[in-house]
Model the fold of this input.
Amino acid sequence: MRVPRAVARFNRHITNPLALAFGGWVPTVGSLEHVGRKSGKRYRTPLNIFDASDGYVVLIGYGPESDWVKNVLAAGAATVHKHGKTVQVVDPRIVSKAEAAPLVTSARILYRVHPYDEAALVVTAR
Done:
């Protein structure tokens, strides 16, 4: 299920600031810090981030045309902030949710039942 763009606009202004401020206790909530491919500005986007054996799997809710996805793919790197840890990640690639499922090492049940089913971004910890 892909989330409508109108929801993305609402989330950008209302939900995302709340998730960045209070989301640290949720098992899968973290943020991805990335650099804008056009502006060069640093952004921090709250996302559902699942631990993987050699990095992280990030579910893509608004589709691969989302700016944060394009930014991470263009830069080839980003920073994951999750549960007080900061990890540099590299080698981003988009795969289907099913392809990424065997890589997930924590919160597997939450991963399986999550309604985003189109794609996932897999990144490797540096």
Notes: The beta strands are 29-35, 42-52, 55-60, 77-82, 85-95, 119-125. The domain at 5-125 is CATH 2.30.110.10 (Pnp Oxidase; Chain A).
